[in-house]
Design brief:
The protein is an alpha/beta fold. The chain has a single domain, classed as TIM Barrel (Alpha-Beta Barrel). The chain is 38% helix and 14% strand. The protein has 9 helices and 10 strands. The strands form 2 sheets. It has an 8-stranded parallel β-barrel, surrounded by 4 helices. Strands 8-9 form a two-stranded antiparallel ribbon. Helix 4 packs across helix 5. The relative contact order is 0.13.
Amino acid sequence: MSPLLLGVHVSIAGSIDKAVARAAALGCTAMQIFTKNASQWRAKAIAADEAQAFHRALAASDIRAVIAHDSYLINLAAAPGENRDKSLAAFRDEMERCALLGIPDLVMHPGAHLGDGAATGIGRVAEAFRSLFADAPEGVRVLLENTAGQGSYLGSSFAELAAIMEQVPNGNFGVCFDTCHAYAAGYDIADAAGCQRVLEEFDRTIGLQHLRAFHFNDSKKGLASHVDRHEGIGSGTLGPEVFRTLLRDERFAKVPKILETPKGEDDALDRANLALLRQLAGEAA
């Protein structure tokens, strides 16, 4: 079995346990899922037998790391009102679903301030998390994902992620580092030297011990474009070197690395991207 914790975001269509078979068919050792339809606010509760089927499928597979991603509808930076109330309820439900499935890490985008300013938005996100963590289920860590900084989205700088974490003393946080988002936000990670400089900045600002997952995505747009458009590994403006650097950095050997790139027909592009990443990691074909 590959020592890499490498995988893709897989569909839960049919039932959540089917995601395991889809990831296993691609040779994954890690995977990311939505625990419900990501385009809907509410979802049917996960039945006990569904959770048990998921646990059995995982135990019988080579998948050694699972992370979940919350719904893109959720905006914890929203102003008081219906959207904020729905976001809080939906995120609480996401945490409970992860706890039931035994998924330890839940990735989320910090949200958009919608013109009210970054400081106000960060304050709202922190307030939401102070409330959420007050009665959160045990064993679920929230991974704040860095963003491209498109529009009024928060989290494009390490300082903004750190500010959220610092304002939530009762929080159980980590960070999911998205390579496309970092590059689009202006962090020049395209070569090994630049990648190391950015990691040093991350360490000073947040601490590398909090880096708990990677999203491995090349970028359709260039450095500091602030446009969130993913591309296949080595096929975008970012290029392959950052992935080689991160894959061979022993500090991240136990950190899952997840593709969110175009899948292609019958997952052909997923297979190609995974094969390239294994090659960049130095694994024998």
